[in-house]
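PROTOCOL LOG
Step 1. Enter all chains and additional molecules of the complex.
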Amino acid sequence: MLSFRRIFLLIAAVTSAVSAKSSTGDSVLVVVEPSRQNDYSIFFNGLKEKGYELTFRAPKEEKPVIIQDDVPSFAHVILFASETKNFAKDITPQSLVELLSLKTNLIIALSTKQTPLSSLAAEFSIVLPPPGTPLVSYFPERSEPPSVIPIAPDSSSSILSKDIHPVWFSGVPMSLGNNPLLFPILRAPAESFAAEVDGGSADALVDSAEKGGEGLWAGSQLSVVTGFQALGGARVTWVGGVELFSDEYAKKEVSKSVESGNKKFASDIATWTFQETLVLRIDRTEHHLVNATSPKEHYTTGDEVEFAAYISKFNPKTGKWDPCACRKDIQLDFTMLDPHVRTALPPVPGAPGKYGTAFRVPDRHGVFKFVIDYKRKGWTHLHSSTTVPVVPPRHDGYPRFLSAAWPYYAGAISTSVAFLLFSALWLAGDVREMKKSKGKSE
Amino acid sequence: MAPKSSAPTQQTTAIQTLWKAYNEQTSDRLKFIDAFLFFLMLSGIVQFLYCILVTNFPFNAFLAGFSSTVGQFVLTASLRSQVNPENKNEFKEVSPERAFADFALGSIVLHFFVYNFLG
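Step 2. Run joint prediction.
Step 3. Record the structure below.
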């Protein structure tokens, strides 16, 4: 019996070590030229070790299709065929956008050549330089050509792990439009610029720089690796050059006996893109009156209401959702068209994963909503909306007779009393007159 | 019942003449009604001033109190015109008793609504 349990535990341990730690699925489609497949073996083996099931496909192969019967066949898609001009007919910019709305994550590598993917980039408000103009930098002094650049990652990025060595990069820079869902993961160095060293024309570069303003194609406002998180939660990473993932760059030394950060960087990008890290969800929300436990069907204007949300974060190590008190800047809105109340929703001390606040319902009745709308770059967008009606107090829920209105009450009462007196006197007068007239006639 | 200038020789102002004529020519019943009307008018003015100068909150109480005086004034004024002997030709079919019954019924209905609206 004991040994049986041991075997069971062993099997469980083995399976849990094999299963991938993405919150959305293990299957990955890699679109890559078969001849170049082995150039990225370190990156692919890293993914396989984590437990992803990689399926390779040449760009012009028909199978396996990425979307079958409106259902995506893979949880994640890697497009490394950055120089391919003609893809199989199921890989189009439109189908890739559809994949995003079907919550499939994408890693897309670009190149200096004009391909269908370059036109897709424009849909994400990523502006690419004209064809044939990669990023070059003459600093720091090195033996490599100027278009092969070591870039030190930003250590404050929440996507990348700390202390990554500089990353070798060669490819196109991207200028980011003002799409709020777009954010740079790796910025170009300050001394770098786009130049027509790869067969591009200087005139085209000047033209496009004039369109975007002076300095469009130079400096650290350019991005070379860019993240994008769709409203549905799917994540896309745009990489300016596919060589960043290559074995050659992973093994290449940045300086003497310092290994480049490419391997770690590539793995971090994949970790984020495949929704292993920075993945949050709202498990449930609750609302009730202060000092009550069960929710009310409707609230009255002026009620003191407590709202709580339970938020958990995906833990890639265990594959489970753990309660997370990690966010300090969540806000709660109490809205009817406009937010009538907007308040912080801080983590409740002593209750992991619970975020709660209490507020007074505004003096306005109507159909209100408790809204959490949390969008932070890199983190899963959180959205929750709970509708509750707010009603005015019941007829016995507030004082009916106010001292300020006594003149009006006195007016109404005196009119009635005067009416009664008037009627009584009038009738009495009638009787008297009748007596009088009777006395006259007699 | 426009008062005729019965004494042109007296050196009095028009208002005094009017007041005198009213006192002399109006029956006691009509004077009684007029006193009631005067009271209602004062009450209405006081409430209206209170509303303007102090507060109109709660507004329903103001509406109830003010409209009770106005409504009562209208009903009483119609009673006055119907029981006035000089208007006998106008209201041939309405006896003074019938007029008072109409007045009383109308007033009771009015007060019913006023008290519903007051609180």
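Step 4. Note key features.
Helices of chain B lie at 14-25, 28-53, 59-83, 96-118.
The two ends of chain B are 42 Å apart (CA to CA).
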